[in-house]
Amino acid sequence: MAGTQPDEASIRYEGWRIVAVCFAVATFSWALGFYGQSVYLAELQRLHGWPASLISTATTFFYLGSALLVAFVGDAIRVVGPRTCLLGGLAATALGTALLGRIDAPWQLYGIYVLLAIGWAGTSLGAITSTLGLWFDKRRGMAISLALNGASFGGIAGVPLLVLAIGHLGFAGATLAVALASLLLIAPLVALLVGRPPAHPASGAGVGAVQALSSGAVRRHALRDRNFLIVTIAFALVLFSQVGFIVHVIAYLDPLIGRERAAAAVSLLTMMAVVGRVLMSAVIDRIDQRLASALSFASQAAALTLLLMTRDPVLMLVACALFGFSVGNLITLPALIIQREFAPTSFGVLVSLNTAINQVTYAFGPGVVGLLRDASGSYTLPFAACIALELIAAGLILVRK
């Protein structure tokens, strides 16, 4: 019975087991669906000679397609349960990744990205935060922060391992190997450990829980709410810049410091994302989360400025580390601000809506950065635009009722 369950503060509470599973899912999802995009772009350019704008526009298509699904992932979890949603996302991501190494025409890339979009919607931010919202109320901030460290770990381990596998197996062999390995390791964890969530009367959590308003009414109200729009727009601008930079970072650094050092820079970036999120998780439920967001935005702008101004390999690594320190928190903070400022019963719907809007926006990041790079002949113009958007968002997030 729910009443006999240990408290959320107890290490014996079953929700912490779900946090561990979500950590593993996030590792898989971000390694292949997010950080892997920079590797895919560089490899597809090398293998086929396709322009950066073509490949990054396909990445935009991927994010747009998954955004349409993410908006409803909270509803899907309530209907079919978190286990089915996560397993479906894992299967779609694994299949899409395996097929990605076997394409030889641009139109096939778009077809594969439909599969990856389904997988990303079922395993990424919206699915993980909505799943954890079914188990956690008072410790939700810490639970989400800890689980999403898997996203950073996916970059730390995933990108170097993928580059290493490509070196030994080729692109086709590497994508098949990592897809199979990830699916065989993680799907059993989800199948065995993710069961039926407990009911949280205060938060209205639990599959089949009754909401005060329908999902559609919650969405309509949110799109007229000033605070929700400010939070969503500010993070959309920053994530547009963040995703655009991360997808192109290897292509930018490769000719300057080499492929292996570029992959190491991505690993350092994501390691710092873990450090930043772990440090923030200890205080995230007690601090001004909007101010923390503004400082994070400004730090990324400073990092991009340093990266543009230097050609010293050490300073480039420093810039990537500074940029990475806030990467993890920027995918955690929107959900925590929503939890603090809006009704608990609307959490799943609002997080899914926020994630979908942000994703529609940052879906254009890789494509726009690629187009500006091809048009200007360098990454100076697109990265300068990213800096400007980061600073605008830093001011906007501090505006509140």
UniProtKB/TrEMBL annotation:
Pfam families: MFS_1. It comes from the Bacteria. Keywords: Membrane, Transmembrane, Transmembrane helix. Residues 17-401 form the Major facilitator superfamily (MFS) profile domain. CDD domains: MFS_YcxA_like (cd17355). The chain crosses the membrane at residues 18-38, 50-73, 85-103, 109-136, 143-166, 172-194, 228-250, 262-284, 291-309, 315-338, 345-365, 377-399. PROSITE patterns: MFS (PS50850). GO terms for molecular function: transmembrane transporter activity. PANTHER family: MONOCARBOXYLATE MFS PERMEASE, MONOCARBOXYLATE TRANSPORTER. This is MFS transporter. It comes from Rhodopseudomonas palustris.
